[in-house]
Amino acid sequence: MNIESTPKKTNDKLRLQAFLRSIAWKVRRRCEKYVNKESTYFDSDLSMMCAIASHIIHELLNKKGIDSQLIYGEYIVGPGIHEKCQTFTYGEGHCWVECHGYIVDVTATQFDAVPKVIVRINDGTWKPQTVIDEKFDWYSWDETQVPSHDKFEKIAGDLL
């Protein structure tokens, strides 16, 4: 093992994690502002906003040249784990971003997860089912939850 390469890899990972956290916080704040000023549909915990927020994070990372994937899957909850989800034993449909091994999730607060911004390695709480791409079927989703150019512009604005 090359001892000189270990700190560089660790530093790169730490820099990436800090950068992801910075982007995630910016998007979280923008989403909260949108919910407080312009939306009557979404709750202050950002319930039902996971696809929109995650899409914005994914696009911001892509613009910076950082590979990421927009993921649809389940956020695993169970009785006694999260106050709002006492009856769920399997999972709740959810969207998040995966980037170089990190989960980036700014709307897990809808499941009473803390902190408000999550950037960490998956501990099994997130169960990916599919990558969301241009072929993803939004048909069964409520139109309000689906990412759109209008919502993207209102929330992301000058972040791009």
Output mean pLDDT: 83
The sequence of SSEs as H and E is: HHEEEEEH
Biggest sheet strand order reads 4-3-2-1-5
The radius of gyration computed from the alpha-carbon positions, rounded to a whole number of angstroms, is 16 Å
Instruction: Classify the beta-strand content into a percent band.
Output: 15-25%
Individual helix count:
3
Question: Kindly, what is the distance between the CA atoms of the first and last residues, rounded to a whole number of angstroms?
Answer: 40 Å
Give the total of beta strands: 5
Oligomer category: single chain
Shape: globular
Structural class determined from secondary elements? alpha+beta
Task: Please tell me the total number of domains.
Answer: 1
Residue share in helices? 25-40%
Largest beta sheet, briefly? Answer: 5 strands, antiparallel
